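Handout, page 2. Input:
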Amino acid sequence: MAPSSRPLSPHLSIYGFTLTMTMSIVHRATGIALYGGTLLLVLWLVAAATGGGFFNFVTWLFGTWFGQLVLFGYTWVLFHHMLGGVRHFVWDMAKAMDPVGRELAVRIQLGASILLTLIVWAIFVWFK
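Output:
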């Protein structure tokens, strides 16, 4: 067989990378990140159940700047993944399926996840 000069994946040269495609990848990544955050939650619950020095250590660890950064990220992951599920639920009802509606839904998801994360941290963490 003679080698073909056709591209193997013409879709890569036809379709432009959109925000919807990016959020699809981010939705999968946040789903994976939820496992790590849930392990942190389990760590805290186990520390609370055992009490004593281990609980004090975990509380100190989560109170450090790095621990706070990780918890802030976990909060955003929770909201972003949840709103991604809502977006997919809306799409399952065949709403906002046109290109403008898809981009608007993704922008709303991204903005709302950031806003909700900031609100939660402002209320429950920064304004104790």
